[in-house]
Write a structure and sequence with these properties.
Number of strands: 14
Strand order of the largest sheet: 10-9-8-11-12-14-13
Shape: globular
Distance between the termini: 48 Å
Bound molecules: S-adenosylmethionine
CATH superfamily of the largest domain: Vaccinia Virus protein VP39
Radius of gyration: 18 Å
Largest sheet: 7 strands, mixed
Helix content: 25-40%
Strand content: 25-35%
CATH architecture of the largest domain: 3-Layer(aba) Sandwich
CATH topology of the largest domain: Rossmann fold
Number of domains: 2
Length: about 240
């Protein structure tokens, strides 16, 4: 497996990744501010990814499940969820719903503070039978949580083909493909540069609440309420008078 690291401006990681999506990517990672990491099975494909300055590394193919087994254990999230590795057989403590993490390279496996912030915000703004959409759904963990909590529907979309293939009820694309005022709770855990561009679309599709994360502690969005911080990352809510 070949890993390519592409430096970029902090906040532009998803924009850079979006430009690579026509290539034969095996996996992608935009968690490191200022660096986009992408993996390819063949070195020839990896070389196609380079724009300006980049580095290519050869890596052993990882067994994600094995590396996860040593690192992950179940944990409570918010008031109602119990986040567990998928191999955990024990039931959730009374009153909590068991939500299985997704080992692997897709974002949204449950180990990132912004995903945890989104799960907690989803719980706070959830009403039984509501409709939920996760814009940039990664592995689909937030949709899975919404369904466990009792959502009528929980759709996802992502520019990344492998995310759209992995997440349940997801499509490859973005919020512009979703009908106007069709979603009660819209979630977007994406870097600020992308969020600012897609915010009008989020307002167009949202009926009630927009939950945003993926922002650093010092980044702000006008009109934000319900601001929560975890390990230097924030989540916030937009509730315009629709
Ligand atoms: C930080 S991950 C969030 C994954 C998951 N929602 C979570 O909270 O754990 C952001 C995802 O947004 C996707 N993405 C970036 N820009 C997007 C856009 N304009 N529309 C849809 N998805 C986008 C990326 O491919 C990535 O999978």
């Amino acid at each position: 497996m070949w890993r390519v690291e592409i430096p970029c401006a902090i906040g532009d990681e998803d924009i850079v990744l979006a430009q690579l999506l026509g290539l034969d990517l095996a996996a992608a990672d935009t968690d490191t501010p200022g660096i986009v990491k992408v993996w390819f099975a063949a070195r020839n494909d990896a070389e196609q990814a380079g724009g300006a300055i980049f580095a290519i590394f050869e890596e052993e193919v990882q067994n994600w499940n094995e590396s996860w087994q040593s690192e992950w254990s179940a944990q409570p999230v918010g008031q109602r969820l119990w986040l567990t590795p998928p191999w955990e057989d024990a039931p959730a403590p009374q009153g909590r719903l068991k939500l299985a993490m997704h080992p692997g390279t897709l974002f949204g496996n449950g180990d990132h503070p912004t995903t945890l912030l989104c799960l907690e915000a989803l719980e706070r703004h959830f009403t039984p039978g509501c409709t939920v959409a996760d814009i940039g759904c990664g592995s689909g963990l937030l949709q899975q949580a919404a369904k466990l909590l009792g959502a009528a529907t929980a759709i996802g979309c992502d520019l990344d083909f492998s995310a759209a293939q992995t997440a349940p009820d997801a499509f490859q694309g973005s919020a512009d493909a979703i009908a106007t005022k069709s979603i009660d709770v819209v979630i977007a855990n994406i870097q600020l540069g992308v969020l600012e561009r897609i915010l009008p679309e989020l307002h167009r599709i949202a009926r009630r609440t927009i939950i945003i994360s993926g922002l650093l502690e010092n980044q702000h969005v006008e009109g934000a309420t319900d601001i929560h911080i975890k390990d230097g990352w924030i989540s916030l809510t937009l509730k315009p008078p629709y």
